[in-house]
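Need a sequence for this fold. Nothing fancy.
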């Protein structure tokens, strides 16, 4: 390793301090709570997109092949 490479390595070590890899808390209980939640909320704009897609497919049935191709 040359002196130049050593200087670059030292500069990078100073610029980027070591990262703490320990989690501040256990995430598994939060995941279980999220999975046990009973309600599923669908935003209003998803319903609008579904309605628009259905309307376009009813008006232009030829686009069904294009939609299926892109799925």
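Here you go.
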């Amino acid at each position: 390793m040359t002196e130049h490479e050593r200087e670059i390595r030292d500069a990078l070590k100073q610029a980027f301090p070591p990262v703490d890899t320990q989690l501040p808390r256990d995430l598994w209980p939060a995941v279980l709570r999220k999975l046990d939640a009973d309600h599923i909320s669908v935003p209003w704009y998803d319903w609008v997109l579904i309605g628009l897609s259905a309307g376009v497919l009813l008006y232009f049935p030829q686009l069904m092949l294009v939609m299926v191709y892109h799925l």
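For context: The mean pLDDT is 87.
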